[in-house]
Design goal:
Elements: H1 4-20, H2 24-38, E1 41-47, H3 54-62, E2 78-83, E3 90-95, E4 104-106, H4 110-118, E5 132-138, E6 156-161, H5 170-184, E7 189-195, H6 199-204, H7 210-220, E8 225-231, H8 235-241, H9 249-258, H10 262-277, E9 284-287, H11 290-297, H12 303-317, H13 323-331, H14 333-379, H15 382-453, H16 458-467, H17 470-477, E10 481-484, H18 487-512, H19 516-549, H20 562-565, H21 591-599, H22 601-604, E11 617-620, H23 623-681, H24 685-700
Parallel strand pairs: 1-6, 1-7, 2-5, 7-8, 8-9
Antiparallel strand pairs: 2-6, 3-4, 3-5, 10-11
Helix pairs in contact: 1-2, 1-14, 2-14, 3-11, 5-18, 14-24, 15-16, 15-17, 15-18, 15-19, 15-23, 19-23
């Protein structure tokens, strides 16, 4: 198995060789390969559908109280945590663009300050902590990468603490959904977290659409991994012993031991069933207690926390002789951290090492081929060598140009196919995530308005709607009017329904983000086709030149998997979609017409002031008309979005196409330059041949298998 040290040693040796023989192009290529090998990033997102203790979990990984962690959703922006051994602790705060603030770096009072910048704006007492877009935190984890036997210490691991979904207010909710789904589509691994105490609610709610995104990534990206984590598992211990009534110490101890891990196993089964339901088989599930692991790892606890930890440890002392070992195992972090380290060390890093090794060996083989041709040619009689070089030159100047035209034509086909495929992906996604949902959005909006008008608060109305099946919505939609409980409730319904429609459309936009993996795969396939095409034409060039020069080239064999080589980060444009709803004020005209004017004033004109005559308030609503208006309003936004999105991808693909088309020309010119150099060398072949032989010997000694 090739190691990172072997690849680095080969890079160093070849770099020294090319510096000695003045080939700056290969020196630069080798430097790029070394940078890719030694500065590789592996991104891990911590995600959840509800407040599950993500920040406490990450604090436990630190072994220190760094991120803000309370019983409600706290983190307002994504926090990118870069961990390397002995890293200088600091945080770089990036503010939202429109805020006008520059980036700032914090090192003093880091643990205290980071808590202020990470919280929601509405909870900030000081203006300087508001409008934060992103936080880059540089802080070492206790065991990830720092484990004694870990081989990934030169491998940058970035954890991303995503904002929770259950924040108050639509603005925060949409911002957090967008951030979380965007992050999840860009990372290499997800730690999908659940709260043991709210496990059923966690599994019932998918406010962020995380299951769908994870399923899509898992099914379509073979290099993506997900670990399912049940946090706060310590609560299961009380559930296990709840039915024990005996006061006899020995009987209690016996029953306690018999019921040990009962509810923990049930929780694992629930996650396993949910994963299977979403098409994820053989789910890797971990149970952890972040709170008690953090208490165990903090060096100086206050008296209260010390008492909490000791009280929890007593639960293990009662029934286990080797209680410390059981305690550590129960907390779950040792196994989880070991598996993360192990996965990165083996699956991930070996894949990257093999890819970089293949790139180094390609350079070695190219140089050895160059020298082999030179040596073979100069060993022949001068007249014969000259004739063969003229024949090879003729091929490169004429037939190879025809091959280049074919190569460029093939690349055009690849480009057009990629554009068509991405265009088709966009069209299908727009249809699936927007147009196919309009009917359901209109029905939901109609039912939601009824529930709010009849006295339900909007949060309860949303919960009802999330559980509604299609036939239940159809039953409500058949009604032509709504009788409100009071004018107050009528106005409430008029005020909240546009916001609800807005949230449904934004949900569609967030679901659309899952299309990124399909587009990413299209780019990867395009690059694969470009590479295969170039390799095919390059072999034709080499084969013909070898025939003309009467030489057989032997290359050093190495294991190369094209999929491993192409496990790159595809740099594709971000989605341009944004849907903005104007919030209306509802102290004016009522009724269905007024409602429509409130949502779409540009279609129906401004609402008029109307006095409510009595407490009874009836809406006459046509669900079909509501659907048409929503569709018409979306159409303009979607058309512009489609054009912008496709334009971005066409520009990106054209750039990649141009870069690949130039490869053949570079190859042909390099071969012509070598032929010309050899033609000049024939005049003094004996001296040049001795030099070539010495150079090949240096090259052979520079590489290790």
């Amino acid at each position: 198995m090739v190691t990172a040290k072997t690849v680095n040693d080969n890079i160093e040796a070849l770099s020294a060789y090319f510096e000695q023989y003045s080939n700056n192009e290969y020196v630069k290529k080798l430097k790029d390969i070394k940078d890719k090998l030694n500065e590789q990033e592996y991104k891990i997102a911590v995600v959840a559908n509800m407040s599950t203790g993500k920040s406490t979990f990450i604090n436990a990984l630190f072994g220190a109280d760094v991120l803000p962690a309370f019983n409600y959703a706290t983190t307002d922006c994504a926090i990118f945590i870069e961990s390397e051994p002995d890293i200088e602790k600091k945080a770089v705060i990036t503010f939202e663009f429109e805020d006008g603030k520059s980036k700032i770096t914090i090192q003093e009072n880091l643990e205290k300050e980071i808590k202020q910048y990470a919280q929601k704006d509405e909870e900030c007492k000081d203006e300087k902590y508001k409008n934060v877009d992103k936080i880059n935190l540089y802080y070492p984890f206790k065991h990830i990468q720092n484990a004694h036997d870990s081989q990934n210490k030169d491998f940058k691991v970035i954890f991303i603490d995503t904002p929770g979904p259950n924040s108050t207010g639509g603005e925060y909710k949409d911002k957090h959904k967008n951030q979380t789904r965007t992050v999840l589509n860009d990372v290499d691994m997800a730690l999908f977290m659940f709260d043991y105490g709210q496990l059923d609610a966690n599994l019932e709610s998918d406010e962020q659409g995380l299951w769908n995104t994870i399923r899509e990534r898992k099914n379509k990206d073979k290099n993506f991994e997900v670990f399912f984590i049940i946090n706060k598992i310590d609560m299961a211990i009380d559930d296990n012993v709840r039915g024990i009534t005996t006061k006899d110490r020995e009987k209690y101890k016996k029953e306690y031991k018999e019921k040990w891990n009962t509810h923990e196993k049930k929780a694992i089964e629930k996650i396993k069933e949910a994963a299977n339901k979403h098409g994820i088989n053989d789910a890797q599930i971990y149970t952890v207690s972040s709170h008690y692991e953090l208490l165990k790892r903090i060096e100086c606890l206050n008296y209260d926390d010390e008492d909490k930890l000791e009280s929890f440890q007593k639960k293990f002392k009662r029934i286990f002789e080797q209680w410390e070992e059981e305690f550590i195992q129960y907390l779950g972090f040792e196994k989880l951290e070991g598996d993360i380290n192990g996965y990165i060390d083996t699956e991930v890093k070996q894949r990257i090492i093999k890819a970089r090794h293949a790139e180094v060996m390609e350079i070695y083989n190219e140089e050895d081929r160059h020298l082999s041709i030179a040596q073979h040619t100069l060993e022949q009689p001068k007249q014969e060598a000259q004739e063969r070089l003229n024949q090879a030159k003729k091929f490169l100047e004429h037939t190879a140009q025809e091959l280049e035209a074919q190569y460029r034509e093939k690349n055009n086909d690849i480009k057009e196919h990629a554009v068509k495929e991405i265009e088709q992906t966009l069209e299908q996604a727009i249809q699936k995530y927007f147009y196919d949902e309009i009917e359901d959005i209109a029905k939901k909006a109609f039912c939601f308005m009824q529930f709010v008008a009849q006295g339900n608060d909007e949060h309860n109305a949303k919960r009802i709607m999330n559980k509604f099946e299609t036939d239940e919505k159809d039953k409500y939609v058949k009604q032509a009017h709504i009788v409100a409980k009071s004018t107050k409730h009528a106005n409430r319904a008029l005020e909240k329904t546009p916001e609800y429609i807005n949230s449904l459309i934004n949900d569609c936009a967030n679901n659309f983000l899952d299309t990124k993996i399909d587009i990413k795969n299209s780019y990867a396939e395009m690059n694969r086709e470009y590479r295969d095409t170039f390799e095919k034409f390059k072999k034709e060039i080499h084969k013909q030149i070898e025939k003309d020069l009467d030489i057989e080239i032997e290359e050093v064999a190495f294991e190369c998997n094209i999929d491993d080589l192409l496990s790159f980060k595809v740099d594709i444009p971000s989605s341009t979609f944004a849907y903005n709803f104007e919030e209306a004020k509802y102290e004016k005209e009522g009724g269905f017409m007024g409602f429509l004017k409130g949502i779409f004033p540009f279609f129906f004109g401004e609402r008029k002031l109307i006095k409510t005559k009595d407490e009874k308030h009836t809406f006459d609503i046509n669900p079909k008309e509501l659907r048409e208006i929503i569709e018409k309003n979306l159409q303009e936004n979607i058309n512009k979005f489609r054009d912008d999105e496709l334009s971005n991808h066409k520009h990106n693909i054209a750039k990649l196409d141009s870069e690949n088309k130039g490869l053949f020309s570079d190859l042909r010119n390099a071969q012509l330059n070598q032929i010309a150099e050899l033609q000049r060398s024939i005049k003094d072949s004996e001296k040049k041949l001795a030099h070539i032989r010495d150079q090949r010997a240096v090259l052979k000694n520079s590489i290790r298998s």
